[in-house]
Amino acid sequence: MTRLYGDAVDDAAEVRRRADEPEQFLWRERLYLVRAVQGHWMESGGWWCTGVTRAALSGESDAGAGNSNAPSGIVDDGEREFWRVEAGAGRLDDTGVFDLCFDWSHGRWTVVRVQD
Fold it and tell me: What is the pTM of this model?
């Protein structure tokens, strides 16, 4: 069964890394030990939606792109790093597959998907 968890407030997680990979995480007051990393990927947000980028794509000058949401040269593209891990809440506990997400813009981890 797959469950999606989208509310970052309720599903915040604390993640400890080793060699740049998740080693364990605390979620919903339970400590999960990562047994295997099944996948790792990055996603970026709508960097193409800024005024500067729209102007460049439409052939306008930078002067006409003053409606950018970010200061010149700085683009908050909503980059997020995902780790799909197999983890369990103890040595004898059954494992599940968890998608952990680190939001680089906000500096926080969340659990976004659980397959148990």
Answer: 0.69
CA–CA distance from 106 to each of 80, 83, 94, 111, 116 (Å)? 10, 17, 32, 15, 28
Residue 78 — very low, low, confident or very high, per pLDDT cuts 50/70/90? confident
CA-to-CA separations, 115 to 14, 68, 103, 106, in angstroms, rounded:
19, 39, 21, 25
> Do the domain assignments include residue 89?
yes
**Per-residue pLDDT, 45:** 72
Output the pLDDT for position 24.
97
Is-contact 82 100, C-beta < 8 A? yes
Say which amino acid occupies 60: E
Report the amino acid identity of residue 1.
M
Contact 72, 52 (CB under 8 A): yes
Instruction: Please check whether residue 71 lies inside any domain of the structure.
Output: no
- Length reported for the chain: 116
70 assigned to some structural domain: no
State how beta strands 108-115 and 21-27 pair: unpaired
